[in-house]
Amino acid sequence: MKLARDTWLIFQRQFQLLTRNPVWVFVGVFQPVMYLLLFAPLLKPALNAPTQAEAYKIFVPGLLVLLAIFGGLFQGFGLIAELRAGVIERSRVTPVSRLALLLGRSLRDVVSLIVQAVIITLLALLFDLRVVLGDLLLAYLMLALIALMTSAVSYGVALKVKSEDALAPLMNTVAQPVLLLSGILLPLSFAPGWLQGIADWNPFSWAVDGTRALFAGDLGNDKVWQGLTIIAVLAALGVYWAARQFARSVR
Amino acid sequence: MIQTRGLRKSFRSRAGRETKTVEAVRGVDLSVAEGEIFGFLGPNGAGKTTTLRMLATLIEPDGGEATIAGADLRKAPGEVRRRIGYVAQGGSTWDESTAREELVLQARLYGIGKAEAHQRASRALEAFQLAEFADRKCKTYSGGQRRRVEIALGIIHEPKIVFLDEPTTGLDPQSRAHMWDEIRRLRTDGMTVFITTHYLDEADALCDRIAIMDHGEVVAEGTPADLKREISGDVVQVGLDITTTPQAAQALDGEAYVRKLETVDDGGLRLYVEEGATAIPQILRRLDQAGLALHSIELHRPSLDDVFLTKTGRSLRES
């Protein structure tokens, strides 16, 4: 009960600050929109897809997962600014739940991700993408879990390194291989065996496969529940670890 | 209100490849009574802030124990948090929020209901003369205004004790005087106030009792008046050339009326004497006999700096 109340308080505050400066939501969505408009049209011939719509069914889910990963991983920067302003310390002297300090922020990130995902989906509809609403909602759940995990990890790392200069290269180093090994831009079915072997160890590759299955209307595909389970477990671990960082001494 | 025994904290710091352990606080025993303004005086790096952060539950002590407003610091930090307020040195407000939003949020983080939180915020804004810009963003405030918001944030839940870390550092003289009044008002409202400072005049003017801290240890504790009385007598400061200072020290050292003698770095002596009025003629006579010329001679009552000097061997102003 207290956790829910505290989380709501932190979420409200963070969300209010976000709506005061909503430009960031659109800055975040700008890059994926560019991919959608300027890169995706190459895919039909490149993938040998029968129609443009088929190509989008493969590309859009990957793009959304990409957005969730990157959107989450870079949230730590805002937290470092809050650390510097003393806002975190001010919260830590109150009896507020430490888990709520994390969850309130991460849920704000999840909401802003979903808003971006809806924008992208709507744009993709203009390009003849069609997807069943129930499947789409399940895909959004996957995206929400990814964003929850990556933003929690980003906050945890931010509390540990405490400086933008350390956070930026760290996150980029993590994000690059994760991105390339998840088949986001092109499906890994094109990849040679060794590359697929490595990618099997990348949880995001499972998430991408699951989301693609959902966009393809293949709800019964094992990849769906496997992807959701893997990401849910990792999100729980990420949240647990990051909440501990909030509880520990930080300056 | 506050009792501590043997509170310790060390940090590991890394310089290049070497890790070394810095003992920031090495066994602090303190006792603060209800309703007093207690000052924690010492140079930068003495361990004041670390001690304060331990008492405010922000960092865990390595050893020792403390009871704060009746709650055990190590066993019930949550209970301590409910009973104390803490105002950090480096600020705690967010540029894009307004004072009112910050106050309401802070009250709510302490578990206060929505309507009550709004009332308290309005009352605090009134009391700290912040009402007219309550709904402007914090980034538009002056240093003094912002500091007042931060103090208001620290006491919005009406704690029994409030910890203020260097509350007047960086303020202009007028805002500083204003802040002193605010701090006295907190005591009038029934709060125990624990402040850290490295300003001697602030400790002297504002605090009922002080502890002097140096190198992680409390070197003296008492009322400012008691501490000054401890180095009973007067201080005579003799201005001399840097070249003649050693000779003068030699001439005066061992004279019956000189209880303690210190050399001032850029020439001159500080003499701790029983009574200034009788000592000055004798000092003048002795220096005259030795053929040494002096620039000036001053008599003053011991200050807290003299207390610090006798306890640590150096001046607070120099450190």
Automatic annotation (TrEMBL), chain A:
<dbReference type="GO" id="GO:0043190">
    <property type="term" value="C:ATP-binding cassette (ABC) transporter complex"/>
</dbReference>
<dbReference type="InterPro" id="IPR047817">
    <property type="entry name" value="ABC2_TM_bact-type"/>
</dbReference>
<keyword id="KW-0046">Antibiotic resistance</keyword>
<feature type="domain" description="ABC transmembrane type-2">
    <location>
        <begin position="23"/>
        <end position="249"/>
    </location>
</feature>
<dbReference type="GO" id="GO:0140359">
    <property type="term" value="F:ABC-type transporter activity"/>
</dbReference>
<keyword id="KW-1133">Transmembrane helix</keyword>
<feature type="transmembrane region" description="Helical">
    <location>
        <begin position="21"/>
        <end position="43"/>
    </location>
</feature>
<keyword id="KW-0812">Transmembrane</keyword>
<keyword id="KW-0813">Transport</keyword>
<feature type="transmembrane region" description="Helical">
    <location>
        <begin position="106"/>
        <end position="127"/>
    </location>
</feature>
<keyword id="KW-0472">Membrane</keyword>
<feature type="transmembrane region" description="Helical">
    <location>
        <begin position="63"/>
        <end position="85"/>
    </location>
</feature>
<keyword id="KW-1003">Cell membrane</keyword>
<comment type="similarity">
    <text>Belongs to the ABC-2 integral membrane protein family.</text>
</comment>
<feature type="transmembrane region" description="Helical">
    <location>
        <begin position="178"/>
        <end position="195"/>
    </location>
</feature>
<feature type="transmembrane region" description="Helical">
    <location>
        <begin position="139"/>
        <end position="158"/>
    </location>
</feature>
<feature type="transmembrane region" description="Helical">
    <location>
        <begin position="224"/>
        <end position="243"/>
    </location>
</feature>
<dbReference type="InterPro" id="IPR000412">
    <property type="entry name" value="ABC_2_transport"/>
</dbReference>
<dbReference type="Pfam" id="PF01061">
    <property type="entry name" value="ABC2_membrane"/>
</dbReference>
<dbReference type="GO" id="GO:0046677">
    <property type="term" value="P:response to antibiotic"/>
</dbReference>
<protein>
    <recommendedName>
        <fullName>Transport permease protein</fullName>
    </recommendedName>
</protein>
<dbReference type="InterPro" id="IPR013525">
    <property type="entry name" value="ABC2_TM"/>
</dbReference>
UniProtKB/TrEMBL annotation, chain B:
<dbReference type="Pfam" id="PF00005">
    <property type="entry name" value="ABC_tran"/>
</dbReference>
<dbReference type="Pfam" id="PF13732">
    <property type="entry name" value="DrrA1-3_C"/>
</dbReference>
<keyword id="KW-0813">Transport</keyword>
<keyword id="KW-0067">ATP-binding</keyword>
<dbReference type="InterPro" id="IPR017871">
    <property type="entry name" value="ABC_transporter-like_CS"/>
</dbReference>
<protein>
    <submittedName>
        <fullName>ATP-binding cassette domain-containing protein</fullName>
    </submittedName>
</protein>
<dbReference type="InterPro" id="IPR003593">
    <property type="entry name" value="AAA+_ATPase"/>
</dbReference>
<comment type="similarity">
    <text>Belongs to the ABC transporter superfamily. Drug exporter-1 (DrugE1) (TC 3.A.1.105) family.</text>
</comment>
<dbReference type="InterPro" id="IPR003439">
    <property type="entry name" value="ABC_transporter-like_ATP-bd"/>
</dbReference>
<dbReference type="GO" id="GO:0005524">
    <property type="term" value="F:ATP binding"/>
</dbReference>
<dbReference type="InterPro" id="IPR025302">
    <property type="entry name" value="DrrA1/2-like_C"/>
</dbReference>
<keyword id="KW-0547">Nucleotide-binding</keyword>
<dbReference type="InterPro" id="IPR027417">
    <property type="entry name" value="P-loop_NTPase"/>
</dbReference>
<feature type="domain" description="ABC transporter">
    <location>
        <begin position="2"/>
        <end position="240"/>
    </location>
</feature>
<dbReference type="InterPro" id="IPR005894">
    <property type="entry name" value="DrrA"/>
</dbReference>
